[in-house]
Amino acid sequence: MQTMDGFEPRRCTSADRMMWITPDRIFYAGLLGAPVMHTKGAIIAYVAIEAPLRIRVDGGEWETTEVAVVQPYVPYEIACDGRHVLDILIEPESVDVARLPAVLKACGAVHAPEFAAHVRRAHDRIVAAGRTLGLQPSDFDTTFFGERLPARTLDTRIAAVLNRIKNNPSAHAAAEECAAQANLSFSRFLHLFKEQVGAPFRTFRTWKRARSLLHYVTCHSSLVYVALDIGYPDSTHFSHSIRQTYGLKPKDIFAGSRKLRVITDAGRPEEIAR
Fold first, then answer.
1. 6: number of Cβ within 10 Å
2. Element (DSSP H or E) covering residue 188
3. Which residue in 127, 116, 119, 143 sits closest to 7, CA to CA?
4. CA 263 to CA 179: how far, in whole Å?
5. What is the distance, to the nearest Å, from the Cα of residue 89 to the centroid of all Cα atoms in its chain?
6. CATH of 156-257 given 3.90.550.10, 1.10.10.60, 3.50.50.60, 3.10.310.20
7. Nearest CA-CA partner of 98 in 145, 149, 144, 147
8. pLDDT of residue 130
9. Handedness of CA 19, 29, 141, 77 (dihedral sign)
10. What is the per-residue pLDDT across 17-31, written as a single tens digit (0 to 9) for each?
11. Domain 14-145 has CATH 2.40.50.140
């Protein structure tokens, strides 16, 4: 159990709910779902706002903390007596993991009261500024970490494949096709991809597709349409993949996002007209 000296719970309302999405980062301030096991493909830092957090990583013991960090593809459960939480997602292929701040290298409960206070203040500033802040993707790291996070140097062939998947996560890009694009044999491509990215090709592609759901959470389209639009063959595959990733059914994610203000990588509220 981590000590939480100086932590003062605050009330969070629907007006404080927001999500800032950039190609390689996400900041979320909103409802926390039920504590079920799930797995995401990002480095995640949770910050308590209404009440201390409880986290259990990979079936271990529950820990109580003000800050919790989870590494990519590590299964975990997160809970809180309050309804709201703040969290930051960092796409691991975009950063040099060895040179990250110490708080982002942990896994589980972390004693980082200054970081927690800084994130809460940043959230307050974004909410207070509303539409006038003009956030850009380049502002993200300095907003929450005070400096740009060190970028990862990637093989140019793998970087091109990553950009293809990230720019169009709904496309059915087969590994064989991407290997040909990289001018590599199939086996060499799979080996180099995992070495460079830190995850197998299929696992990475599955995460990016599930991540793209977050651009749709405030739209009014049917879930069947959303599933097809982001590349799932049917609603069964869609529901299974989303529950494994987020620990929630798609309909519950949409229900909990009705009052969420979404800021896109263009720095403007998300507007998806269907």
1. 10
2. helix 186-197
3. 116
4. 34
5. 4
6. 1.10.10.60
7. 149
8. 73
9. negative
10. 999 999 999 999 999
11. no
Burial of 197 (0-12, 13-18, 19+ CB in 10 A): buried
User: d(Cα 139, Cα 25) in Å, to the nearest integer?
Assistant: 11
The structure tokens listed for 84 are 């709201």
Strand partners, 20: 27, 263
Other Cβ atoms less than 10 A from the Cβ of 136: the count is: 11
Q: State the pTM of this model.
A: 0.91
Burial classification of residue 166, based on how many CB atoms lie within 10 Å of its CB (0-12 exposed, 13-18 middle, 19 or more buried): middle
Could you please report the per-residue DSSP string of 204-256?
A: HHHHHHHHHGGGGTT--S-HHHHHHHTT-SSHHHHHHHHHHHHSS-HHHHHHT
Q: Are strands 261-263 and 18-21 parallel, antiparallel or unpaired?
A: parallel
Residue 143: Cβ within 10 Å count: 19
